Amino acid sequence: MQERLLMRERRNRLIRWLIIAVSVMILFPLYYPSPWSPKTAVRQTLEGMALPSDTIEVVSMIQTGSMYSVLFYDEEHELYHHFFMDRPFGVLWRNSGGDGGYTFDPNEILKMSWGGQREDDNWYSYAVDQVNDPRIRTLTVEWSDGVKQSMQPIKGLYHFARVFGKDEKAAAVLLAYDAEGRLIYRLDENQPAIRKQ
């Protein structure tokens, strides 16, 4: 008798968990369409902005706290997009905000664009834009708290991201270096771009 009750309880528990799992698999995509990759998770947002979404690729992804800063590039249409994303259940992808439709300006050598968004009492900050000088081999961003990040340009773009506490001031300076490590350009909020003469 005791064994039958125990078996029935285990069977009922298994059935409950199967119902929960199936419900999550059916209901979650209704609220977050195509959450299986970063590319498909932003597709609906880009289409809502009347931007092409089938030809984008992820060129840079930086984990910043609980969020991911993702840079997308569309080579066919020469557009780039930046979005913050999170990972519900550690498997799925969800767009948490961003912007898209940035075009390349052939008259700009280097431009500093940065911004961010508040989430969970933190400020998720990013710096992203184009690099249009073949002499630039390395870019370094110096954040307002002294932290430095460096990278090489990817497909004519750079991408930095990090998280600040709610009371920290987020600002940045962008430094561009040549192959020998010499400083070529320095951009900040007072000089946010270098244009061709």
TrEMBL record:
Alphabetical UniProt keywords: Membrane, Transmembrane, Transmembrane helix
TM region(s), chain numbering: 14-32
Name of protein: Uncharacterized protein
Organism: Brevibacillus borstelensis AK1
